[in-house]
Amino acid sequence: MTDDRISASEGDSSGSLPEVSAEHHGDHTHRDVSGGLLRPAVFGAMDGLVSNFALIAGVAGGTDSGPVIVLAGLAGLAAGAFSMAAGEYTSVASQRELARAEIELERTEIQRHPIDEEIELAETYRAKGLDPDLASKVAKQFHTDPDQALEEHVREELGIDPHDLPNPMVAAASSFICFAVGAFIPLLPYLLGASNVVPALIMSLTALFGAGAIVSRVTSRSWWYSGLRQLILGGLAAALTYFVGTLVGPGI
Q1: Given this model, what pLDDT does residue 43 score?
Q2: pLDDT given at position 19
Q3: Residue range 191-210: average pLDDT?
Q4: pLDDT tens, residue by residue, 20-71
């Protein structure tokens, strides 16, 4: 009985590529290893949650005054969010400016030394395993269009997409919002009338576990492992800060 499926290791007499088995669809997908937008959003919120939770716990360890704790929490939220936004804006703006400068440098090199840059691009392809003749042909094809050549050089040499540079305003706004959302969680129970740190503790630890579980979507860890790890780390930071508050608070 003849098997109508052709093995991947076999070809026909004409030397053409083997057919794909009907059982193999070849359309598998991979997870986004960079985390996409989920990773910075969750980690930004987690940063705000842990830092403000620890701050509120430290103040609560030194005083029973609800208004003082609320003031400290609001100050921590505002200071942290503005600091994150300012730092992210400066970082991304500097990165964007550097990228643009390098792109312009590459543009100048292509204009002044087109042959040398074409050879350089071909060598890049050869280093990746392309046949030397094919590498030269591909590089020559790209260099028939200066703009296309520039894009390819930038991608190969700088590892960036010249049409998709990071936006500092977007980065600053997202950092501000994510941090503020996280920092608001441990503060919420006090705004609703809580008189001690226990409700904030429960809400914050729950949120920490949830954030850790969400992060597991961009890692190989299970949701419960990631959640439990973040709960322990955040809880430890708050516990140590609370201990410092109990030591320092009574003496002030």
Answers
A1: 84
A2: 54
A3: 94
A4: 454 544 455 545 444 456 667 888 899 999 999 999 999 999 998 999 999 9
Domain span at residue 240?
A: 196-247
Please, what is the Cα angle at 44 between 176 and 204, to 5 degrees? 105
Q: Is residue 207 part of a domain?
A: yes
Residue owning tokens 């439990």? 228
Alpha-carbon separation of residue 244 from 151, 240, 247 (angstroms): 54, 6, 5
Q: Are 211 and 46 in contact (CB under 8 A)?
A: yes
Task: Identify whether 161 is part of a domain.
Answer: no
Domain count, the chain: 1
Structural domain includes residue 210: yes
Q: Is residue 223 part of a domain?
A: yes
Query: pTM value?
Result: 0.77
